[in-house]
């Protein structure tokens, strides 16, 4: 029985000038073998998964454009890929630092802080704003219980009130704080 081969429905995109035939398969293999490891590596370097994805894509694009370099003399592309990703991360970092200073305040601080620090700073500001909107008695109760780690019985003894009263006042203070933390609160 004769075998037939099917022609592709549309012609494949032409590879960049200077690439070898079959470099698309090489790129698919590189991506399957190394993309997830490169993604983790780039995320550790940048601290940002979005930038890490950009670095992996640019690294793979460079491998596709330069298959002779990506394959190396030994045919082991891992070292080359990680070196390219590292250089791209360094270039991105330098480019961000070379930008002119932005307006003072939160925008300037955001450019210097890591994403975790930005989130923590915003949380602290929101919490400080919400606490400032509470009655002083509620704020003092919450501070005694959660900041100074005093028990309900200790607080009750210090204020000469029953523990049940302190519990209900803490509940009301937490509820007021929760309301202040909602969008549009305070």
Keywords:
mainly alpha; 0% strand; 70% helix; disordered N terminus; 186 residues
Give a summary of the structure in a few sentences.
By secondary structure, this protein is an all-alpha fold.
Radius of gyration: 29 Å
How does the major sheet shape up? none
Q: Portion of residues in helices? A: over 70%
Strand content: under 5%
Q: What does the average pLDDT come to?
A: 77
Q: What low-confidence regions span 5 or more consecutive residues with pLDDT below 50?
A: 1-16, 101-107
Structural class: mainly alpha
Overall morphology: rod-shaped
Give me the number of helical elements.
9
Give an overview of the whole structure.
The longest helix has 24 residues, at 23-46. 14% of the residues are buried. This protein is mostly helical and 186 residues long. Helix 1 (23-46) runs antiparallel to helix 2 (49-65), helix 1 crosses helix 4 (78-98) and helix 2 (49-65) crosses helix 4. Residues 1-16 and 101-107 have low confidence and may be disordered. Helix content is 70%, strand content 0%. The chain is rod-shaped. The protein has nine helices and no strands.
């Amino acid at each position: 029985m004769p075998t037939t081969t099917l022609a592709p429905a549309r012609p494949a995109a032409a590879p960049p000038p200077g690439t070898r035939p079959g470099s698309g398969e090489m790129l698919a293999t590189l991506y399957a073998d190394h993309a997830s490891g490169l993604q983790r590596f780039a995320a550790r370097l940048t601290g940002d998964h979005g930038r890490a994805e950009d670095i992996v894509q640019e690294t793979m694009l460079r491998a596709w454009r330069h298959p002779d370099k990506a394959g190396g003399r030994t045919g082991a592309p891992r070292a080359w890929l990680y070196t390219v990703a590292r250089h791209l991360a360094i270039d991105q970092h330098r480019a961000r630092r070379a930008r002119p200073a932005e307006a003072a305040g939160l925008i300037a601080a955001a450019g210097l802080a890591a994403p975790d620090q930005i989130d923590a700073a915003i949380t602290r500001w929101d919490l400080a704003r919400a606490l400032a909107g509470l009655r002083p008695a509620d704020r003092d109760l919450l501070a005694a219980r959660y900041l100074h780690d005093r028990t309900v019985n200790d607080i009750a003894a210090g204020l000469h009130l029953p523990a049940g009263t302190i519990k209900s006042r803490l509940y009301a203070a937490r509820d007021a704080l929760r309301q202040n933390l909602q969008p549009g609160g305070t």
